[in-house]
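Batch 3, record 17
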Amino acid sequence: MPCDGQDAHSLCEKAQDVSLQELETQLRPLFLAALAGDAAAYRLFLDTISTRLRGYLRQMLARAGRTDASEAEDVLQETLLALHLSRHTYDPASPVTAWAHAIARYKLVDHLRRSGRHADALPLEDEAHQYAGPADSAASEARLDLTRAMAALPERTRSLIDRVKLQGATVAEAAQAAGMTETAAKVAIHRGLQAMAKFLSRRGTRPG
Amino acid sequence: MQTDDLIALMAADDRPVDTGWLRRATWLCALAALMLAALLVLITLGARPDFAHAWLTRPVIAKMLLGASVASIALVLFQRSLRPGLQPGKRLPLVALPILLVVGWAAFTLAQSPAEQWSTLIFGRYWRACLIAVPLYALIPFAILFALARRGAPVDSRLTGACAGLASAGLATVAYSLHCPDDAVPFLATWYTIAIAAIAGLGALVFPRLLRW
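Prediction for the assembled complex:
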């Protein structure tokens, strides 16, 4: 569930409306803790930023004449993967919201270019992310892209990911079940996420 | 897969992340590339015959300073261009500063000398060699910086490419100054600048095509 827990929930709900400055004040300490290895802080950061980015992506896609919510969800998932795999590119002296939005914008332009739309024709000015997104910010069904990306993973990694993702097991439990150390399991999950990102960025123009 | 599942999965990959790696790697790669290029210049062309007493003269120091300052500025911007949200493009004109200094110095030199010497001062003896060698040796740092750029998240790959090109040409300038026997400042201002601009252009052209993430 997104934003479970009282604090998390209120933070998430607000993510659409609060000013960028407030959001930055909330998210920066969370992300810095996440970089130091705090999984709970990272989870809260991801929940909050994904709400914000979902609004941004839906708004921008709507301007491009695309109102299919699942398309925004696809770009959001791609953005989140890129965010995760590019954590080392964050400059701790800079605003984390600017970093995340720059990645979302890159993935959005990339998505539009791939799906046969000239991205230059879009009003993608940098200030656009400061506008509030649509009020409806609930997650919607993504298309099957990520599922197909998962299918391309090695069996061992896939079952490990299934345990963590679907059955809600901790990494330690999943690692034990798979007969590997916790560190090895984390490395495997990391490689799995890398492979998924690669799969997504390599696929060509999709139908629809 | 739902976005929540993806988030849960990413939160499980919670090993600490080193945000300083990119900066350290950039400087180490540049240093290694410079040594490699210098070594290659020494092996393939050899040092200039009078290097023992020429290396402390103004022209050689000027060449090295030009290359080193262009490379340093470009490397800082290159490294920052791999970090989304920083917009280092605004500072790109800074690279022109050392070049403008040299061009100004060259103009001053020309103004001080009789017009019949201008051709000698500008073309020197080996302007073609300079024009070929600097871009060629620049390919070493260029390839290394390209490999590094793939480890970053360049949201403006044209800028990343231009910075990588400028840095590579700057490093190659330092390396080639070990050999280059032409010492006139107008020579330096003309041919080195053209070589640097060419590699910067190459970077701006090639990186956006090959750098997708």
